[in-house]
Amino acid sequence: MPGDHPVLPRPSLRFVAVWRRNLLVWRKLIVPSMLGNFGEPILYLLAFGYGFGSLVGDLDGMRYMVFIASGIICSSAMFTASFEGMYSAYTRMAEQNTWLGMLATPLTLDDIVFAEAVWAATKGLISAITILVVASLLGLVSDARALLALPVIFLAAFTFGALALVITALARSYDFFLYYFTLAVTPMLLLSGVFFPLTELPGWVQGLALALPLAHVLEIVRPLMTGAWPDAWLPHLAVITAYGLGAIVLATWLIRRRLLR
Amino acid sequence: MAPDRDIGGTATNRYGMHSPSAPGPAVSAISIQQLYKAYDGLAVVDGVDLEIAPGEFFGLLGPNGAGKTTTLRMLLGMTPIDGGQVEVLGLPMPEGERAVRERLGIVPQFDTLDPDFTVIENMRTYAAYFGLSGPTVEARIDRLLEQVNLNDKRGARIDALSGGMKRRLTLARALINEPEVVVLDEPTTGLDPQARHHLWRQLRQLRASGVTLVLTTHYMEEAEELCDRIAIIDHGRIIACDAPSRLIAEHIEPWVLTVGGADAGQLLERELGPKDRAHQVADTWLVYTAEPERLRERLRALGRESTLREADLEDVFLKLTGHELRD
């Protein structure tokens, strides 16, 4: 352990300045950024929704397009936050020395890593909101309960951002991120109930999916978007929160070990 | 070894005497006692003691890998301290890192300007990291950009700036919080002579404001030009610490004769006075002497011309740290 610095991070409100810095840069690149946030998930929604929709018919008592809309919202938030926590954060850490510049000010590493996770969460939320708007326009959202999904998605995106920052702390180059995408993000995308109900899978695969956070996000978000109340939302929320807290502590510790040695 | 009046003397009675609420100015801007840092069991900083007075311009001089940057990083709270005490502006490090860095201006060795922003945006964003914004800061930014001659570059992207401009912007940025101590890690490495002199001029202008300045460098000229006092550091230890002129007076013969030619070595072996020292650097010999004329005449009689100059800080540095290459 480096020095005698406490293991638990103690970010201060100064983290807002770091978050704002990322927001200002994002605003400069808003067109390509929004296109990525927005274009790809909408394509998935339309292609799978219309393409499969007519073949599949109803699923869990809802049109396939309705079923998949809530899945795409969650997976898109996961992808957006993960990308931000890996490629973009790595660029700021290792290529542009942005974090080193910040460390010459009253900001601490705890502030910076926390801000990056909150920023990744923000981008995940932005992508979820854009898809939610399109989904409502297409009549795929049942009622105003869908708005309650947004804070859950924000928390989930924080968790995915923090997990990505753990990978960033260990990365020696951009190529390293492929491991995480192949071994964690893609399995979560395919096995967590985004495209079809979790219950279609063999028991042990379901168990595996429930050991990872995305399935729990869907267990809360899908009912909220389709006009129902999620049952047993608390344990699901607890899993997402536990992953998030564990990841932010680990990411801060690893990045401190990497940069402040 | 230097009979040093500035280091070590008061170390023990300062232990544990820090009290953050104590009124009045700190005796030292920076106080370091028995500082120690090891990587993989290898000591990089090995028992450094330093007292830097408020308003002093202080230089840390040493070969590559001597421990300059590591010392500096521990001072700034950017490297964990393995042993010893560091106080900056009366606050203990690393506990006081936030409060200390609020009052510090740091110019790091490598460029950390934000490439996603223009010059003015870099200044504003950096100010925001200190929690500074509003009209007072805008006025300050204008003044600082004026001061470093970057006013006409306000809207320029960072990658459109020259190396010298980037350094000046980094300096202006480091002054945004009106720091009491400015710390520069090899501020002019990689700059051309014009840019270097320009930066020196700007650093000298800081004197009027009463800031304390600490810099690391391996340019002797830079240290002589800017610093009231210099510590020469090697293998993690301070081996001499004094004003540049006194370092020269105490550590080296006043004159240096340069003698060339393949047989210069043999020649000098015969002709060297008892108190003279000769040292070979590549294919020339440097003779350090208090009486250059005698030797010069002897050489001239043998048909050999030699060049005479006054000894400078570089000679002291090479004498104390050795002539072998460091990587």
Q: Which residues of chain B form runs of ≥5 with pLDDT under 50?
A: 1-24
Shape summary of chain A = globular
Shape of chain B: globular
Low-confidence stretches of chain A: none
The major pleated sheet of chain B works out as: 6 strands, mixed
User: How far is the N terminus from the C terminus of chain B?
Assistant: 25 Å
Measured by DSSP, the beta-strand proportion of chain A falls in under 5%
> What string gives the helices and strands of chain A in order?
HHEEHHHHHHHH
Question: Topology, pairings included?
Answer:
The complex is a heterodimer of chains A (about 260) and B (about 325).
Chain A: H1 15-28, H2 30-56, E1 58-59, E2 62-63, H3 64-95, H4 98-102, H5 109-137, H6 146-170, H7 177-191, H8 203-210, H9 213-225, H10 233-259
Antiparallel strand pairs in A: 1-2
Helix pairs in contact in A: 1-5, 2-3, 2-5, 3-5, 3-6, 3-9, 5-6, 5-10, 6-9, 6-10, 9-10
Chain B: E1 30-39, E2 42-52, E3 57-61, H1 68-76, E4 83-88, E5 91-92, H2 97-102, E6 104-107, H3 119-129, H4 135-147, H5 163-174, E7 181-185, H6 193-205, E8 212-217, H7 220-226, E9 229-234, E10 237-242, H8 244-251, E11 255-259, H9 264-271, E12 277-281, E13 284-289, H10 292-301, E14 306-310, H11 313-321
Parallel strand pairs in B: 3-8, 3-9, 6-7, 7-8
Antiparallel strand pairs in B: 1-2, 1-4, 4-5, 9-10, 11-13, 11-14, 12-13
Helix pairs in contact in B: 8-11
